[in-house]
Amino acid sequence: MLRIEYAYWLIAAFLLYTSWRKARERQVYCAAFWGLLGLLFATGDAVLAAQQAGHELPAQLAGCAVIALALIAPRMRRKAHPETASASARLASALRLGHKLFVPALMIPLVTLVVALIGEHLSIGGYALFAKPQMTLTGLMLACVIALVAAARVAHAPLLQGLSEGHRLLDAIGWAALLPLLLAALGQVFTQSGVGAAIAALAGMILPEGNAFLCLLVFSLGMVLFTVIMGNAFAAFPVMMAGIGLPLLVQRYGANPAILGSMGMLCGYCGTLLTPMAADYNLVPAALLELRNPYGVIRAQAWSAAGIFIATFVAMSLLVFR
Amino acid sequence: MNYWPLLGVAVIVIGFALRFNPVPVVVCAALLSGVLAGMPIPALLALLGKSFVSSRMLLMFVLTLPAIGLLEHAGLREHAQQWMGRLRGMTLARLLIGYLLVRELLAMLGLTGVAGHPQTVRPLLAPMGEAAAEKIHPGLTDGDREEVRAVAAATDNIGRFFGEDVFIALGAVLLIQGFYAQHGIELTPLAIALWALPTAIAAFVIQSVRIWLFQRRLKRRASPFPTGQET
């Protein structure tokens, strides 16, 4: 049965390979960074299992490794990337291979789609092929492996070259790859240390008495602002709801909870478009697309976010107090 | 109420404003907030390690890189651009709006993992967008190219975010339902998901208009004011 853990082991192997390549190029900090990250991925299951069983030490060591990564990251120099093939060689190869090049690239979304849709029902001799949790991601892992094999066949290249090209791309992304995970951890720490409750208390202080519309405005803007800070509307939602949404809007002013919940969450999504804290949507793509400005994606979507927020807020204020 | 942990938020804001490397800034903010909240250091370390390890799925995109890298080496982007150049009637706006529609509909079906920045935007959408922009404005500058790529990435984000809440079995809707259930208000997921539809439509319309305006801006840049008009 294919499980999501296999994907983590594959990622660990790829990270360790990158580390080994960096060590051969005598880039010590890069080698240490990817190596440490690879170790965290390889031992992740053991750390979580030990934590479940009540042993804190592995998790504490993982925490120390995270701090070490943070100390190494600023020392990684991103160098200009010499493409491994010249522009003319790539153009000639593009002319020769034509549409065949699309096939492996499209296999990644297509295989993922198939597994997401019918993965539950696939079995060999009554033995389920895919484990139920995280089926789409497991499908993505399978799709990536199949696409790599297909790409090697189409390009008449050895499989190992895929690893080496992948290492080139990963190197171009650099420490930005780490941010989504770190921000998820930061969100957990913020929640545990009561940052949310403090913000809700502050929002309550500036709230005007007896004006439902202004209260709704503070709630929606609070969803945006808190999402910008936390990088995730899911973290903002319970805080703003417990602080303002439920006690004031629903219980005092009679707002419709379904509309308030749904549209309030979407206001938070507008905040996600605006913040570097949502690294996997805003900073990692900027690195992947090799933009010189790390905030280029945020800049491209800021006005859309403002427009969508206004539209959502207007709809909400018209519908929610019916 | 202990307001001191809020200093962690201040660290984040100042760190991003001064353009420090975000990785140590984020870790410092986490450590500071935890300490100010009175967490013992060993518990704080364990919390940091555990939450980092349990969000490993966020690095799944790394697995797409070997296949994409190999295909790029073999000329995938060049081919996407050439093909785009030959397609008659395919404009930048039509390409991006079409992608937006497909992405939003897929997200509504809960298939958010199917497309994305490493799988579809970098290898396909961005190079095709650049080629389509070149049809409008053959003298694209590097800045223009980066803008096309950024708009492609933004289109992917918007399609994904505002589609996914219309699907009932996805995280956000269940989170909303769970929150209300804890507080004694029973709602069906469908009753919540339905109200995401107006925003989904508004997001599609707004981003489409902005794509179209971007295309018009590129056209303007391509034909600056005619030069021979001095009287």
From TrEMBL, chain A:
<keyword id="KW-1133">Transmembrane helix</keyword>
<keyword id="KW-0472">Membrane</keyword>
<feature type="transmembrane region" description="Helical">
    <location>
        <begin position="6"/>
        <end position="21"/>
    </location>
</feature>
<feature type="transmembrane region" description="Helical">
    <location>
        <begin position="28"/>
        <end position="51"/>
    </location>
</feature>
<feature type="transmembrane region" description="Helical">
    <location>
        <begin position="211"/>
        <end position="237"/>
    </location>
</feature>
<feature type="transmembrane region" description="Helical">
    <location>
        <begin position="139"/>
        <end position="160"/>
    </location>
</feature>
<feature type="transmembrane region" description="Helical">
    <location>
        <begin position="298"/>
        <end position="321"/>
    </location>
</feature>
<dbReference type="InterPro" id="IPR009323">
    <property type="entry name" value="DUF979"/>
</dbReference>
<feature type="transmembrane region" description="Helical">
    <location>
        <begin position="258"/>
        <end position="278"/>
    </location>
</feature>
<feature type="transmembrane region" description="Helical">
    <location>
        <begin position="97"/>
        <end position="119"/>
    </location>
</feature>
<feature type="transmembrane region" description="Helical">
    <location>
        <begin position="172"/>
        <end position="191"/>
    </location>
</feature>
<dbReference type="Pfam" id="PF06166">
    <property type="entry name" value="DUF979"/>
</dbReference>
<protein>
    <recommendedName>
        <fullName>Permease</fullName>
    </recommendedName>
</protein>
<keyword id="KW-0812">Transmembrane</keyword>
Automatic annotation (TrEMBL), chain B:
<dbReference type="Pfam" id="PF06149">
    <property type="entry name" value="DUF969"/>
</dbReference>
<keyword id="KW-0812">Transmembrane</keyword>
<dbReference type="InterPro" id="IPR010374">
    <property type="entry name" value="DUF969"/>
</dbReference>
<feature type="transmembrane region" description="Helical">
    <location>
        <begin position="29"/>
        <end position="48"/>
    </location>
</feature>
<feature type="transmembrane region" description="Helical">
    <location>
        <begin position="191"/>
        <end position="213"/>
    </location>
</feature>
<keyword id="KW-1133">Transmembrane helix</keyword>
<keyword id="KW-0472">Membrane</keyword>
<protein>
    <submittedName>
        <fullName>Membrane protein</fullName>
    </submittedName>
</protein>
<feature type="transmembrane region" description="Helical">
    <location>
        <begin position="166"/>
        <end position="185"/>
    </location>
</feature>
<feature type="transmembrane region" description="Helical">
    <location>
        <begin position="57"/>
        <end position="76"/>
    </location>
</feature>
